[in-house]
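Dear colleagues,

As part of the handover before I leave the project, I'm documenting each prediction I ran so the next person doesn't have to rerun anything. This entry is a single chain, and its sequence is reproduced below.
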Amino acid sequence: MLTPEILWGLGALVLLAALVWGMTQYKRRNRANDPITERATRAEYDHPDTYQREEEKFRDQVRPS
């Protein structure tokens, strides 16, 4: 049976792994896509009914990492 001390240590390791993964994902993102993301977010909030039709237009503008 696992003792609470072992579970606490395993939880700390999982949390550390999640933080490292999140930091690497943040560092690897393509900052050139930030303006496109901002425009897409505004379009989605301003016009939620028509955003489904415009979504592909925004996806075509995204630059690969």
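Residues 4-28 form the longest helix (25 residues). Residues 3 and 9 are 10 Å apart (CA to CA).

All the best with the project,
I.
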